[in-house]
Amino acid sequence: MISAVIVGGGIVGLATAIKLRTKYRTAKITVVEKEMNVGLHQSTHNSGVLHCGLYYKPGSLKAKLAVSGIREMTAFCRAHEVPHEICGKLVVATNEMERSRLDELLRRGEANGLRGLKKLDRAGMLAVEPHVAGLEAAHVPEEGIVDYRAVCDAMKKVLLESDVNIMTGTEIVAIQRGKSNWIVRSKSDSIEGQWLVNTAGLYCDKVSELAGEKRDVQIVPFRGEYYTLNEQAKHLCRHLVYPVPDPSFPFLGVHFTRLIHGGIEAGPNAVLAFAREGYRKRDVHLREFAETLAFPGLWRFMKRYPQMAFSEIAQSLSRKRFCKSLQKLIPDIQAEHLTTGGAGVRAQAMTRQGELVQDFHVVRSDYALHVLNAPSPAATASLAIGQYLTEWI
Ligand SMILES: Cc1cc2nc3c(=O)[nH]c(=O)nc-3n(C[C@H](O)[C@H](O)[C@H](O)COP(=O)(O)OP(=O)(O)OC[C@H]3O[C@@H](n4cnc5c(N)ncnc54)[C@H](O)[C@@H]3O)c2cc1C
User: Fold this and answer.
1) Least confident segment among 1-10, 306-315, 361-370
2) Pocket, ligand 1, Cβ cutoff 6 A
3) Closest CA to 215 of 361, 360, 378
4) Mind listing the domains of the chain with CATH numbers?
5) pLDDT confidence band for 214 (50 / 70 / 90)
6) Alpha helix locations (H) across the chain?
7) What is the pLDDT of residues 161-189, one digit of tens each?
């Protein structure tokens, strides 16, 4: 009989457990989570967007798994009455360089099999979002918004009903390879499984190290901060309004997102966090921060993209600067329309050469699968990632 221990009860770990249970009805499956509930980190500190695969290089894992992932995720939401809406999005080009990048995005989207993608001229763009500025836009009708807290709760319910063991409040501190099993230990428990699946998000590199894996990347935590629009400004955005992203980075640039339960959020930026779970500017974890600073990849990255690092920090410290980036998309937004909102921290893998890993990254070894890079759109694609991992098993 197959048995598996999944370390990390975020949306990727939960979705993987669902897929494993679907394939192996009698397998012994345990999800181990250090917090007192599942999905308390990236999975519920995000933009709440259902991404359909526009941005990703054709043939990449992200492209494949986002496209099948959004279809699976919306089916899951329908089946489990999770609030969601396919409201469509605009990606807006505001200058000539962005226009040519927009054409490339449309080519990628078509190559990835997106349906209904359309380029809109200014008039077409204003018919969808009357307050945006820009030269032209891509309309992506398949994208949407969702309540990822409700997704995690529904996944947990499915797992408990199908006899999957979820151990919360259990932080894994040691992992040992037995003769034919993995032995995964917390301070008080020891759990065994034939397969080890590491979906520990912001700590996935640490967990892989515990398992003796020689890893090629390190997680560098990038905080994404949000503002919410006040009552006077809410009418300025109807759906989802995004800039054309810089292809050198995996981050999409600050954008406007309608939330599934009402309200509009603006953000997130991308600033280096001083702690892996550092949701506030003042959160510092000395050991983790020292490790980040000691990582040569970070310095190579900063040397290569000093402007990006500087502008993100400046934007984080100044509401006015943040607002200026937003005004590129919607000029009527004013700093006084913005109220400080929440934040999330991205588990972004970086190589020692200072490259941000763009694609999902899974390292396979002796009966172990380590998910070492699962940033956006991994919430949307979680069920497809779970299927991908299950096929390996
Ligand atoms: C600001 C931001 C915006 C985003 N927007 C979107 C979006 O709109 N759409 C989208 O699809 N994606 C988005 N993403 C990405 C998405 O949220 C993540 O890709 C996804 O949630 C990753 O899920 P995960 O399960 O891998 O990680 P997590 O949700 O972080 O789960 C990992 C879990 O592992 C647990 N863990 C860690 N170490 C241990 C240990 N030693 N023992 C036991 N448990 C452990 C943690 O407590 C955590 O619960 C966004 C991310 C951020 C940060």
Assistant:
1) 306-315
2) 7-13, 32-35, 39-43, 45-49, 51, 171-172, 199-203, 207, 224, 268, 344-346, 374-380
3) 361
4) 1-83+145-216+353-393 (3.50.50.60), 89-141 (no CATH), 219-351 (3.30.9)
5) confident
6) 11-23, 61-79, 96-111, 122-128, 148-161, 204-210, 286-294, 296-304, 306-317, 319-327, 382-392
7) 999 999 999 999 999 999 999 999 999 99
